Amino acid sequence: MTTTPAPTPTGTTTPAPADGGRVARFVRGIDARLTAPGPGFRLLEVHTLVALVIGLRLVARDWSAIAERPAALTDGLTFVSWLPPHVPDRFLVALAVIGVGGVGLVVARRRAQLGFVVAWTAYAVLCALWGSSGKVMHNDVMTVWVGFVLLFARVPRRGQDDERTVAFGWPPRAALAVLAVVYWLTGVQKLRHSGIEWALSDNMSWILRQGGDAPASGLGHWVADHVLIAGALATGALLLELTAPVWLAWRRTRAPFALAVAVMHTSIWLFLGLDYSAWVLTAAAVAVPMSLAPTRRLGDFRGFGTISGRG
C-alpha cells in the first residue's frame, strides 16, 4: 500500500515523511536495543554486584552518628519527612542491619527480588537522613539511582540462568543507561554553572588547593601550581563525563570506562579526600559484566580478547 502525497496550497505535492522521520527511527532503535532479550545470568550478575555495593555502603558507615545531629539539621526532609526529628540510634543501626540482611537474600538467591527492595529502601532512607535535607548525598547518588532501576527486575530463578527473555534483558541495560545519564548530567551541570571555563581557567587549581588533609594534598598543591597540568586534569574529567553515553554504548569501551572513572575518582580522593568509591564500584558492577559477550559469564575469562561489537 502506498501513501498518497498531500497537496500543498499551490497545487503541488510534497512527499509524506517516511517511517516517521529520522528521530522516530532513532528512538525506536534505542528502544529495541534496551528491550531486546538477554540472558538470565547477566541480570543475575549485575543485580548481585549492585546489591553487594549497597551492602558495603551499609556496613562501612557509622549511621548512628545521624542521631547526634541537632533537630534543625534534620528538618524539612522530603521522602523521609514522616520520621521524627531525632531518630534513635538503635533504629538507624537496625535499619542498616535489615538492609544487610536483604543483601544476604540476594546473594543466597532466596527471594532475591524482595531482598534487593529491602536493601535498597534501607540504604536510600539512611542516605537521605545522612544528607539532612532529604536529598541523597553525591557520594551515594549513583548507587541509589542504578539500584532504583533494578527494583523492578524479575530476577531469574535457579535453572533460568541460561534463558533469554526481554524480562532478563532490559534491567541491566537500563542500569547501564542510568550510569551513562548520571555521568553525562554531572558534566552538563559543570557547563551549565561555570561554562567551559570550568576546565580552561584556573578553576581546578583553586579546587586542588582545598585538599587540606587529603592523602596526597602535597601532590595536589604541586599540580595546582602547574596550571597546564591542572587544566588537563579538569578537561579530561569533563570530557569523560560528557562522553559517558558513547563509552557505554559500545561493549568494547565499557570496561575501559569503568577503569577511567576509577582513576578519576581515585585522584579526587588523593587530592581532595572526597570518597566516591561507591561510584567506582557501581560503575564496575554494571559496566564490567555488560562488557562481556552475551554468551560469556563474568567468571569465564576464556577468550576474553574476542569481545567486540555492541551489546
TrEMBL record:
State whether keyword Transmembrane helix applies.
yes
Membrane spanning residue stretches: 91-107, 114-131, 137-155, 167-185, 227-248, 255-272
Question: Which keywords does this chain's UniProt record carry?
Answer: Membrane, Transmembrane, Transmembrane helix
Query: Its domain of life?
Result: Bacteria
What's the protein name? Answer: HTTM domain-containing protein
